[in-house]
Structure formats: structure tokens, C-alpha cells
Target: Amidophosphoribosyltransferase
Amino acid sequence: MLTTNPFDDDKLREECGIFGIWGAETASAVVALGLHALQHRGQEAAGITSWDGHQFHTHRAMGHVAGNFDRDDVIRSLPGKVACGHVRYSTTGETALRNVQPLFAELSSGGFSIAHNGNISNAMKLRRDLVRRGSIFQSTSDTETIIHLVATSAYRSLLDKFIDALKQVEGAYSLICMTPEGMIVCRDPLGIRPLVMGRVGDAYIFASETVALDVVGATFIRQVEPGELIIVSDKGLRSIRPFANVRPRPCVFEHVYFSRPDSIVDGSSVYSVRKAIGAQLAIESPADADLVIPVPDSGVPAAIGYAQQSGIPFELGIIRSHYVGRTFIQPGDQVRHLGVKLKHNANKALIDGRRIILIDDSIVRGTTSLKIVQMMRDAGAREVHMRIASPPTRHSCFYGVDTPERAKLLAAQMTIGQMSDYINADSLAFVSVDGMYKALGEDFRDEANPQYCDACFTGDYPTHLTDQEEVAPADQLSLLGERERASL
Ligand SMILES: O=P(O)(O)OC[C@H]1O[C@H](OP(=O)(O)OP(=O)(O)O)[C@H](O)[C@@H]1O
Ligand SMILES: NC(=O)CC[C@H](N)C(=O)O
Ligand code: SF4
Ligand SMILES: [Mg+2]
Model:
């Protein structure tokens, strides 16, 4: 997949967050709050579209929710009782305003806006066919293919057109769409990306994570089921199942890293799962040491679990700056190097002379581990044992997480022993795949019919990867915009 982030691709980037509300007086203000709670899922850009019963209004901007959607004039320009929004981390299509969601188009049925979390793994192929048939794309985002498939569908009703479009799409999609007929919300048949439903007063809310419901004072009703399509209109709420039934395979990495620990994903508390993975790691890979130290932020719950299981004291040996975001993105090697140091610093008084177990949730390129282990040694650690609360990340994600290509994944290039040497640890261990499944409440991974998507660990992708398999890189390039090609 040609990802087009113009900056470095050091890490597993976040994905996207979506939030929609039907039937509240200050709909766009509520969406702004909800997006704020989902900011960890995408920090490149944000957008809100509202529907006032006659017209759609949109504001989209590069950057964070705060600074763009905390302004009265912006919220006032988004009137109506229906609104939806998006925070973006691009997976297909460059980081530019034309790709910022919600995307909007005037169709034969009227206005149509779409907010998408996920990635369509046959978007390039669909786009090539649509362009040959005369479609004129306004963006380079995979999401826009859905709009064109709806627009060109031979079915008569908007809903039938929409279902027809989704049946041609492969990959991951949680969607919130707004039309004059109502809000249409759906999750792909495998439920790869999350989506939940809540209520506040008489209004219905849909959001990527439950934390966004909490923040706006809404009550969690249930998750949108994999393969479910919900239509909310003045007539109420209607649920249909337009796809053939398959065993769902939600993304396991939501539990490991992406979701906020205070969210409930697939019915499980993310915090509890992370703690359980840490405990499992302590059982599978013990180490003789004085302290258990988390790599903040996402390593913290697993480190608590490891410490409780092993009986080794948990301490904050690394302090993080709250003024540096989840991933500090800066072009240029020198600044990037400074970035990690800005974010984390050793609590030297604690570390000096101790044997420590460092816990992080994942190793992607190894940038963080390499620097943190060195930081611990510089602070006087006697031994540094690194433990990782996920299996080795050996494969790229094509479902909405912007992973580096395989060649840049440390675990795809080295054995665990080589990785340990590379990061200069005294020992390195990862939780097993079955251990991760145990922490999720399963007995083991069902090899014949896995309970989760875990492709970045196992390489077992739950859908075709048509663009990877059928669209040659040269053709992929020809489908991209000029600016996108220049940024590669
Ligand atoms: O091996 P690497 O390429 O360095 O990537 C892995 C690191 O990236 C993530 O942290 P990040 O700083 O993005 O976010 P966090 O603050 O949520 O832990 C993850 O938690 C690991 O620490
Ligand atoms: N990370 C995501 O979910 C991104 C959504 C969509 N594929 C985009 O690139 O805009
Ligand atoms: S490949 Fe990994 S990150 Fe992507 S959806 Fe599957 S489990 Fe999640
Ligand atoms: Mg981290």
C-alpha cells in the first residue's frame, strides 16, 4: 500500500476517530467534544459536517480539534440538530485538506457526507475502474470511492445504492454518513474497526470508542455489530444486516495500543485487557529484577499487570512530558531524534544501580526501545530486561492503521535475539499470540477461525488485499495526485 504521509513513518500511527449525533440542539458542539475525546486516534486533521434540515454545512481543518473547533464562530457556522465529525490519520491519500473528512458530495438523492475509520483494501482497483467510466475524483482518499460507487449504482433507493456500494468494497470500514433521509451508520462484516452507540437525552450518538460517550455525558447502549447497518431518522432507528454472516474479526491492536484504556472495546475494558496481557507476560517471561518500569503512556497498564503478577515493585522510572503528543512527528532525522528525548526522561534517582524490567506495548521500528534502553543505562541501570505486551509486529496493516512497510518493521528483519542485541537489552521477550488471546478471555487463538484480526502479528489477513495483489506499484502511482507522488 502506498501510504503518503509526508513525514517519517517510524511508528504504528493511530487510525481515525468518528463521532455522530442525531437529534440534539447543539449537535456540532457535542461532536467537537466527542472528537476531542478521540483525538488520540488521529492528529493530522479534523472536520465536522452538520445538517440543519435544509442544508449541509462543513468545516474541515488541518491539525487538532482544539484550536479549530473550540471557536464560537466555527461552531455557529455548523447549525442543526444532526452532525458528525472525524479526526484523521491518513492511510490512503496524502495529508492535505482535500482528503480531510467528512467528505461531502451532492448526489441525485441530495447531499451525502461520509466519515470513515478504516481502510479499503481494493480502493485503488475500484478507483481505476470508476475513473475509466468517467468518475471525477476530488480527493485521493480511499473513502471517496464509496461516494462514487453510491453515485453510480443502478439501484433506485439511496439505501440500496449504499448497500450495493459496500458490497463492492473490501477491507475495514466503520462509517457515519449523513443524508437528507437520515443518518446511516455501519460496520464492515468482520467488524475490524470499532463503533459504539449511545444516547444522551433524546439524541442518538455513534462513536469509535466509549470514551467519547463518557465525555459528552451519554449512556452506552451497545456496540454497532459487525455487518450491521443502522438508519436513524425522524421515524426512529432501524437496523438491517445486508451482508452474509461471517465470524467477526475485530482488530486486536485496539486492545494493545490504539484505544484509550478507559474505553470498552468488543465488550472488554481496554485497561483490564492490557493489565491481563502484562500478567500473562510475567508468567511466560519472568526476569530477576528490582523494579518494573513502564514506557509511558501505553506501556503503563501492562506494567501494572506484570508487577502484580510477579510481585516486583512497580515504579515510574520514566517520566513523560505532557506537552509532547502521542507520537512526536517531525520531518528530518535530527529533529526526530530529539523528539523521543523530549517526550521521555529517566527518573535517575530511582534507576541508578537497579536491575529493571521495562514494559512497552509494542516494538514497531524499534526507535523507542533503542533510545529508552540507552536512557536507562545512562541513568545507571545495572540490568535492563525488556518485555513487550504484544507479539512481534512482523506485518503491515492494510485496515486503517498507518504502519511502516514490512522492511521497516524491526521484527520482520531480525530474530528476537538479534532485536535484543540491537536495542542493547540484557534480555527481550514478547507475549505469545495465545497469551494475548488468553488476556482477552479466550482459551487460545482458534487457528481455523480466529476470533480477532491479528494480521500484523501472524500475517493472516482476514480479507483479500486486492490492491497489494493485483494493482502494480506503477499503476498505484498513476492513480495518485501530483502532490502525493512528489511526497513519496
Ligand atoms: O518501535 P517504535 O517504532 O518506536 O514504536 C513503538 C512505540 O510507539 C508507540 O508509542 P507512542 O510514543 O506512539 O505512543 P504512547 O505515548 O501512546 O505510548 C508504542 O507505545 C511504542 O512505545
Ligand atoms: N486511519 C483511518 O481510519 C483513515 C481513513 C481513511 N482511509 C483515510 O485515509 O482518510
Ligand atoms: S493488521 Fe493489526 S492493526 Fe491492522 S486491523 Fe489487523 S490487528 Fe489491527
Ligand atoms: Mg509508547
Remarks:
- The longest strand covers residues 110-120.
- The pocket of PRP (ligand 1) is lined by residues 10-11, 257, 295, 297-298, 326-327, 360-369 (CB under 6 Å).
